[in-house]
Amino acid sequence: MSNPKPVKRPRRLRTTETMRSLVRETKLDLNDLVNPFFVVNGEGVTEKIDSMPGVFRYSVDKLLAEIKIIYDLGIKAVLLFGIPAYKDAGGSSAYDSNEAVQRAAAAIKDRFPEIFVVTDVCLCEYTDHGHCGLVDEGRILNDQTVEILTRVALSHARAGADAVAPSDMMDGRVAAIRSALDREGYVEKAIISYAVKYASAFYGPFRDAAGSAPRFGDRRAYQMDPPNIREALKEALLDVEEAADIIMVKPALAYLDVIRAVRETVNCPVATYNVSGEYSMVKAAAANGWVDEQRIVFEQLIAMKRAGADLIFTYHAKEVARWLQQIS
After folding, report:
1. Which of 70, 138, 156, 282 is such that its CA lies 20 to 30 A from the CA of 315?
2. 215: helix, strand or coil
């Protein structure tokens, strides 16, 4: 009598947590995470952001105390956004060496030299009209804006930033910034390009936090149209040609297919941004008891990794670090 055909049982590899961890295909660790911060002028400032529970605006002295906490937790990279002391049509405070981002970058590198400091390079927080570029009769000027962005990037590099991250979506700004950095001897400063940044509704809480909502119109003339993916690949390849070191896809959750497509197209690290709206929706649902916050955050971040992201910029970073400590 012949033996019965063996039953294939995939469940054998799911029987215990130890077994599941041994065969887990995608893993999340602290080296994957970049913690964004909002920096303001003054001293002793810790301002709550109502639309982003658990996220604050910090003056530089208070930021250093927060950096110490995440450093001790094992987070090794931060992203700095600035809320300036003044705004004008040209966004001149963005390249002011006495402004919050420049002072914060210098202070962090002095106190915590091992922390990798990334700075946002854009004008939306610094212009009185709230757009990411210079404006002429309602039009966003590309090439003139690139000149200003180059000045911003240089001011960040001089302050000690390890990488600059242009998020403006102007054409040609990566090449211009790379050339300027190299001319001034900053050949080792990296560029993390927001090559694929969609005109998304998920940015609402950020604009509240940074005071960067446009005073007129919207950003669809320069940020990407959400239905497009071939355009994303074109943007990514252009920025790689212009010497971007890392390519960013933003937002994350509604664009996992884009992350995967970019990962399969470019031969450099891919980052994604778990943006403010994604963060705040989880916080609101968790506060109402509708979701298990820890489980849903891990599930979302793992999805970004599984899609192909090497780095994840996320406001959940500190919480994730603590959860990972508890798990280990």
Report:
1. 156
2. coil
What does the alpha-carbon distance between residue 114 and residue 54 come to, in Å, rounded to a whole number?
A: 25
Q: How far is 109 from 75, CA to CA, in rounded Å?
A: 15
Q: Domains in the chain, start-ordered, CATH in brackets?
A: 27-327 (3.20.20.70)
Res. 323: pLDDT tops 70: yes
Q: Which residues contact 101 (CB under 8 A, 6 or more apart)?
A: 39, 80, 81, 82, 119, 120, 156, 159
For 155-180, how does the pLDDT look when each residue is reduced to its tens digit (9 = 90+)?
999 999 999 999 999 999 999 999 99
- Rounded Cα gap, residues 241 and 151, in angstroms: 21
Using CB atoms within 10 Å of the CB of residue 288, give its burial: 0 to 12 exposed, 13 to 18 middle, 19+ buried.
exposed
Mark out the alpha helices in the chain (DSSP H runs): 17-22, 60-73, 100-111, 142-159, 173-183, 204-210, 230-241, 256-265, 276-287, 293-307, 317-327
φ, ψ of residue 45 in degrees (nearest 5): -100, 125
* DSSP per-residue codes, 107-158: HHHHH-TTSEEEEEE-STTTBTT--SSEEETTEEEHHHHHHHHHHHHHHHHH
CB 195, CB 239: distance < 8 Å = yes
Would you please indicate which residues are annotated as catalytic (active-site) residues? 197, 250
Rg for the chain (alpha carbons), in Å? 21
195-212 CB burial, b ≥16 within 10 A, e <16: bbbbebebbebbbbbbeb
Q: Which residues pair with 246 in a beta bridge?
A: 192
DSSP state of 199: -
φ, ψ dihedrals at 57, nearest 5°: -95, 130
